[in-house]
Amino acid sequence: MPAHRTRLATGEVHISGDLVAYQLRVSGYDLAVALGMETDLATPVPAAAFERRRAALERYLTERLVVTTGDSRCVADSPLLDDADLPEDLVLVLRYHCPEAVGHLGIRYGLFFDLDPAHRSVGRVVLPGRDEPFVFDTAHRWLDVDVTAAPSGPRRPAAGRSRSASSPSPRLHRHLTPAGLAAAAASAFLKSASVKPYRCAPPMRIWAAMGRGTFLSKFSDTCGKFESKCG
């Protein structure tokens, strides 16, 4: 059993020229434990507590969430903290400035694995005309994406260190420069990833879609089957 069982983290990455923006949603409790903050995992951790530990937070993210283009490492700004969903979740918006326009994106993810080897983080890189889904876990900590490539299927980050159209989510868009990612295309990953139960359409909608004769024949057949079983 891990010393601390973490929750699933989710992320969304946008690219514009030499700027990479990574929106990361993590458990507030997980982050507090990772930063060595006192918490009983029951009492909510206030946003002010993270601000007081900002220096430690920046070191943690800089060391464990690395963005590159080609062989060059991109430089991270101080993270923006969106605490609207605390105490459950904290949204981190990280902006990386690269030495050149990003043609080949690399991401090394190393958050929380020291607390929980079974930790996972899922997300997507939003590119013009396509998305690149990814999953980070203890065996897959590197992601390589050819930004200029034609659309492809889902990707999984490479194991170990080997390198081998929609609208931006409201929170991410709010934190980006107008010239940077205002036109990036992606719907909010968290909404698209959430599981929604299926519901049957009302009979009148089915009627309108199928036509009166077809609907009545199907309805009659169904009623007959129920009568044969229950009569």
List keywords for this structure.
231 residues, alpha+beta, 5-stranded antiparallel β-sheet, 8 helices, disordered C terminus
* Helix-and-strand structural type: alpha+beta
- Can you give the mean pLDDT? 76
Cα-based radius of gyration, to the nearest Å: 23 Å
Instruction: State the distance separating the first and last CA atoms.
Output: 55 Å
How many helices? Answer: 8
Main β-sheet, in a few words? 7 strands, mixed
Describe this structure in words.
The protein is an alpha+beta fold. Helices cover 29% and strands 29% of the residues. It contains eight helices and twelve strands. The protein has helices spanning 28-34, 47-52, 54-64, 170-175, 178-181, 189-193, 203-210, 212-230, and strands spanning 9-16, 19-27, 65-69, 72-73, 75-76, 80-82, 89-97, 104-109, 121-127, 130-136, 140-146, 158-159. Strands 1, 2, 5, 6, 7, 9 and 10 form a seven-stranded mixed beta sheet that branches. A five-stranded antiparallel beta sheet has the order 4-3-8-11-12. A hairpin with a 2-residue loop joins strand 1 (9-16) and strand 2. It starts with 8 loop residues before the first strand and ends with a helix.
Furnish the topology, listing elements before pairings.
Layout: E1 9-16, E2 19-27, H1 28-34, H2 47-52, H3 54-64, E3 65-69, E4 72-73, E5 75-76, E6 80-82, E7 89-97, E8 104-109, E9 121-127, E10 130-136, E11 140-146, E12 158-159, H4 170-175, H5 178-181, H6 189-193, H7 203-210, H8 212-230
Parallel strand pairs: 1-9
Antiparallel strand pairs: 1-2, 2-7, 3-4, 3-8, 5-7, 6-7, 8-11, 9-10, 11-12
Helix pairs in contact: 7-8
